[in-house]
Amino acid sequence: MSRIRVDLIEKIEGVAEVKYHIKDNRVDFAQIAFFDSRYIENILTGRVPLDALAITPRVCGICGHAHLIATVRALESATGCRVSKKAQTIREITLSLELLQNHFKWFYLSIYPLILNGANRVDGALEPSRVISEAIALIAGQYPHNSYAIVGGISTDITPIDIFELKDRLKYITKLFNKYIIDTDISEFSRCDKLEMMLSKSGDLPLIMQKILNNGWQSLGQSYDRFIVFGDSGIFKKGKSVSTRYQEHLDMRYIEEFKTPNSEAISIKYRGKFYETGPLARAMIMKRSLVKEAHRRYKDSLYTRILARVCEMPLLIQYIYDLIDTIDYSQPSWIDYKEFKQSCSGVGAVEAARGSLIHKIDIKEGKIIEYKIITPTQWNLGNSNKSNPSTAQKALIGNRADAPLELIFKSFDVCSVCTVK
Q: Which of 13, 148, 225, 384 could form a disulfide with 140 if both were Cys (CB 3.0 to 4.6 A apart)?
């Protein structure tokens, strides 16, 4: 017996529609559609290049800072300018703080209620989010939608007092992580390589992961087991992994964008294949021990995907601590650069909370003639056909109709407004 079920997926910075084709009580196919349009690329066409620094952070209210950093990297690629180590470090700090904030929000607003039957613990998202917003604003002047990263560096000149206040907030963020997520030292948790050890701790992470095991959901949501990372920084490295085989070299010329029927979103392939991007991809390429252990048991399932994102949190906290200690106040915050050539182009890639974010800019006669944004949700949740489903479609197909399909969908961490043109 065949039937169609349509689900609206909400609380994803917009809304998505998933049309499930049910056959013999299993998902035979799932069509994914996004309809919220951002039109940012059209707004930028014909403007001077520097306008992008003020406009692209408005793409999203959740990860606007990642869009800013991708933009400034694209502009610096176009003009060929370099920035000081100090400016690079401060950009990394603010970007890492935004990733950390996103992970708290996703865990408590998207995942926690789905696994615990609607249970609500929004304080686990709101309090860390407030403190992290304050920490970013200390450096960037405001949050969200700041534009302090400019071509040649940053527009602020950080002081030891700023760093003192930043460290104070980072210590509080660490306490919140221990209070809510898992009660253990962050360095100890980062070294943990046994799932049983993680499950023996107190906190919401062991609670959630044990609940998944108790429900028998740990192997649900498996996809292609192909991962890709385009951003490159001190904590992440670029590359792709297919069934644990790592390859470092990536070429953006092999990124393929294509439109599919019944959705406003553009889907993405690399060399003709779908890849997963995001924390699980980053963990697999970096060979994070606890995530690798989960992957050995359950492959690229919702269990491994959720664990990978939360395991990234203590790594980000420690990374920010380490970055703070390397700041050289004597270096310039901004270095003058040559003006844009009349015709030039540039590309900027960063690792946003949901995965690889790429901005491309083409300039002619001093004006933007084309601006392209490729978002993580386009990688993970594109729409394709039954013979070659996207990463998320593949994860949904084959599950029982009464399986936690929304949880599988949201395990990728979805943003609707970033996804469509």
A: 148
